[in-house]
Write a structure and sequence with these properties.
The chain is mainly beta and 344 residues long. It folds into two domains: 27-98, SH3 type barrels (Roll); 114-343, Porin, CATH 2.40.160.20. The protein contains two helices and 21 strands. The chain has helices at 10-23, 192-197, and strands spanning 30-34, 39-47, 51-56, 64-68, 72-76, 82-84, 97-98, 115-126, 136-137, 150-164, 167-183, 189-190, 204-205, 212-227, 235-253, 260-281, 287-295, 299-300, 303-305, 315-317, 324-339. The chain has an eight-stranded antiparallel barrel with strand order 8-10-11-14-15-16-17-21. It has a seven-stranded antiparallel sheet with strand order 6-5-1-2-3-4-7, with no helix packed on it. Strand 1 (30-34) and strand 2 form a beta hairpin.
Length: 344
């Protein structure tokens, strides 16, 4: 059995630095607080005795705007300093005035505000590679999927923080499993590994008093980012980049999983790059769904299942067969998402 722990160095530290840089975007602008309570994300260009000139942060190459000092409570600059005006007064004020020549009569666009959301996931995994299974039912065959392609479901929860129109920080926790038969009730299991364990005397073992299945159960968590190259209002395709940590139990069990014919546990971690999906939102952008495809998951290998099928038999994976991808070949999923009412 091989256990891995995530050191806070190397790729993990680099990944955290990248996420910190993404999140810091939220705090890299000046904030103007008006007496009406409205906050404006801006780049202040001039503070006069009675007026403040600024550009909207989401359109720095666009027109300049002017606010009367009497309309402003305070300005918090990106370096953390503040100018405070009219702190004791808060009354609704007139709309902003566009003073640029090109901006006369220009339409005012809403300012992006970061928001928090979450969701629930249903996952389907593409089976188990047959070469990683100790045995198969007599008369059966190893297939690339190790039996039925989708042999188990997974469930999870996710949290995301949209820090900018095209980027969100993403975190999820999920549990998923895959299974393929080793032997059926009254039948036998067979493989070249059994032949080796019996001293080349027999390649079958049994009969079994109940079904035996090779199971892989995984609990994992991931932290990363989703990038939205086309930031449409209701339809938003994305690309995901994550770093994941997974705790895995692999072994042979009966159908109820109350009896084991050998099992082991291991930890795996690593980056995940092949993640694609699309979000669909309702018009109010309160509820939505996400369809996604994920592949290229970390590989579990170099582990030993002790007393596998028989006392004293050890099934060892030295990585020669490449181990197994913790998702199988790939997985697909559906997530039902929501956004906090404060951020609609």
């Amino acid at each position: 059995m091989k256990n891995s722990r995530i050191p806070f160095t190397g790729p993990v530290a680099l990944w955290c630095l990248i996420l910190y840089s993404i999140a810091s975007y939220t705090y890299s602008q000046d904030i103007i607080l008006k007496r009406s309570g409205e906050e404006i994300q801006a780049r202040v260009t001039e503070v006069g005795s009675d007026k403040v000139t600024y550009k909207r942060y989401d359109n720095l190459n666009g027109p300049s705007y002017v606010l009367e000092i009497s309309e402003i409570v305070r300005i918090r600059y990106e370096n953390g300093t503040e100018d405070v005006f009219n702190a004791a007064e808060k009354e609704p004020q007139a709309a902003e005035t566009d003073t640029s020549e090109t901006g006369a009569g220009a339409e005012e666009y809403p300012v992006f505000k970061p928001y928090l959301g979450g969701g629930f996931q249903v996952l389907a995994h593409h089976g188990i590679y047959g070469g990683n299974v100790p045995a198969r039912p007599q008369g059966g065959e190893f297939t690339p999927a190790g039996g039925d392609p989708y042999t188990g479901l997974g469930f999870g929860v996710n949290i995301f923080y949209r820090v900018a129109p095209f980027i969100s920080v993403y975190f999820d926790i999920s549990n998923f499993s895959s299974s393929t038969p080793v032997a059926y009730t009254g039948g036998y299991a067979t493989s070249s590994w059994i032949y080796e364990m019996t001293g080349w005397e027999s390649d079958i073992m049994g009969p079994f008093t109940e079904n035996a299945n090779y199971n892989i159960n995984t609990t994992g968590m991931r932290l990363g980012a989703r990038i939205y190259p086309l930031n449409k209002n209701q339809l938003q395709p994305w690309i995901g980049i994550y770093y994941g940590y997974y705790s895995i139990n692999v072994g042979i069990y009966n159908d109820s999983k109350e009896q084991t014919y050998g099992n082991t546990s291991l930890d795996v971690h690593g980056p995940l790059f092949m993640n694609f999906g699309v979000d669909f939102w309702d018009k109010s952008k309160s509820f939505g769904a996400s369809l996604f495809f994920e592949g290229g998951a970390p590989i579990a290998q170099d582990y030993t299942i002790e007393n596998c099928l028989h006392e004293g038999w050890n099934y060892e994976d030295y990585g020669d067969a490449g181990g197994f991808h913790i998702y199988g070949s790939y997985r697909i999923g559906l997530s039902v998402n929501f956004i906090s009412g404060k951020n609609k």
